[in-house]
Specification:
Oligomer: single chain
CATH class of the largest domain: Alpha Beta
Strand content: 25-35%
Number of domains: 2
Order of helices and strands: HEEEHEHHEHEHEHEHHEHHEEEEEEEE
Number of helices: 11
CATH topology of the largest domain: TIM Barrel
Shape: globular
Length: about 450
């Protein structure tokens, strides 16, 4: 039998914890935040030199809009497919998560630009499928189903229930488990998920929403029904019912888009009201350039709540809470003596953002020992399990080693760092304190 030295059994382990302070800084986290739109015509050769500046603009997302209207009467040419490939390769190469929209029209004249035959639309999806599959790991959201003004699924002859189901089915085969398809209205989601057994099967859905008329009117410019009466499953509902539906759905699939200025809405909604709406919708991405009238109003507003955010502009408050935002609230260590002594860590993490993290993300406790080696273990929770407004405590055990203790997180699929919203000198990890074994 192995004899445990008496001196080892008497060792003490102390954790000198660092004070955890919430930060108001913008965090460079993937798949969330502000985006800009970059519009291309598939028939035009892509010149990456014209877009190199967007690598340094601070946005983690881009909306890549590709107009294929030039091919309404036939197949997409090989050269056009190569042009699209070059566009997606460029944005992937500069480490941007992509919101992708491919459509026949980017000027609001879809009926002039869309094919005459529905079979051409399905053929075009089949032609594009290889590229969508190729870049799916880098596509956060694929918006729309090719048709409608600006690709927004309205003002098109191809929006019968059967055609919506057919086009969305073809696209869902391409996006796999790395991306999400997004449709323009909650009613579109319900049309696609019409089977009785699938009606509220939100947990396994890969289809979310995009709303390019947030605050544009009381109905978000027709996103919701004018009537106060809730209709059937395949009809639009009044705003209260639709927001309740979005809150459930978008706990599992993302929602984002554009906020629009409307004088009546601005007069009756405070900053708190608008923030509450964005929270209910689980907004994870917004266009930073549209609508400038509303964005400028946000810049003139001030957050009046208590805490570290008091006095911050409405624009900064909204921008820094779009998507997920994780703040470490406490870090507690318990030392258990014995033949195999361990430190058990309990870390409380709050998601203060408007939405969840929709990709699996691991959390690591790391101790840099006096020997400069890194000792680490993973918490038993993942960041994607923490819903907005929730605080979840994760735990793990490690062999005690004297040294500096940190916490960091990363997205599973590509090891992209996810920064915590705590004041820190190192963006990609938070110093929790010092561990001493004596």
């Amino acid at each position: 039998m192995k004899i445990v030295p008496h001196s080892f059994m008497k060792k003490k382990c102390k954790f000198h914890n660092e004070t955890l302070v919430e930060s108001v800084e913008e965090l460079p986290n993937p798949a969330r935040g502000w985006y800009r739109i970059y519009t291309f015509c598939a028939e035009e050769q892509f010149n990456c030199e014209e877009y190199i500046d967007c690598k340094y603009n601070g946005d983690m997302l881009v909306l890549v809009f590709i107009d294929i209207g030039a091919y309404r009467d036939g197949k997409i040419t090989e050269q056009a497919l190569c042009n699209i490939d070059a566009i997606l390769k460029f944005f992937t190469g500069i480490k941007k998560d992509i919101i992708l929209r491919i459509a026949y029209d980017h000027k609001g004249v879809a009926q002039e630009r869309e094919p005459f035959f529905f079979s051409y639309v399905t053929d075009h999806i089949m032609q594009l499928s290889g590229l969508i599959i190729k870049y799916a790991p880098h596509i956060y959201v694929y918006q729309g189903i090719l048709v409608g003004n600006w690709g927004e699924m309205h003002t098109s002859k191809f929006l019968s229930n059967l055609k919506i189901r057919r086009l969305s089915s073809l696209l869902c085969r391409c996006i796999g488990m790395d991306s999400f398809l997004a449709v323009r209205k909650p009613v579109h989601w319900r049309i696609i998920n019409f089977d009785e057994e699938k009606r509220e099967d939100f947990e396994r859905t890969r289809i979310g929403l995009f709303d390019d008329a947030i605050f544009g009117s009381n109905t978000h410019l027709g996103t919701f029904a004018e009537s106060d009466k809730k209709g059937s499953w395949a009809e639009s509902w009044p705003i209260e019912s639709e927001l309740e539906f979005e809150k459930k759905l978008c706990s599992y699939a993302p929602n984002g888009g554009e906020a629009i200025y409307d004088e009546k809405q601005v007069q009756k909604m405070s900053l708190n009201d608008m923030v509450d709406r964005l929270k209910i919708m689980n907004i994870s991405y917004l266009n930073r350039a549209y609508d400038e009238r509303l964005i400028n109003i946000w810049k003139d507003m001030v957050w009046e709540g208590a805490g570290v955010w008091s006095g911050v502009t409405g624009y900064d408050y909204i921008g820094r809470h779009i998507g997920y935002r994780f703040c470490i609230r406490s870090a507690v260590m318990k030392y258990v003596k014995g033949k195999s002594p361990v430190c058990t860590w309990k870390i409380a993490i709050e998601n203060t953002g408007f939405a969840k993290c929709y990709h699996k993300a691991y959390i690591w406790i790391e101790c840099i020992g006096e020997d400069k080696k890194i000792y680490r273990n993973r918490l038993n929770i993942t960041l994607d399990a923490i819903l907005p407004g929730e605080t979840v405590t994760g735990s793990c055990s490690m062999t005690p080693v004297s040294g500096d203790v940190y916490i960091r997180a990363e997205r599973q699929k590509d090891k992209a760092a996810i920064c915590f919203a705590n004041v820190t000198k190192q963006k990609q990890r938070i110093f929790l304190g010092k561990l001493s074994l004596q």
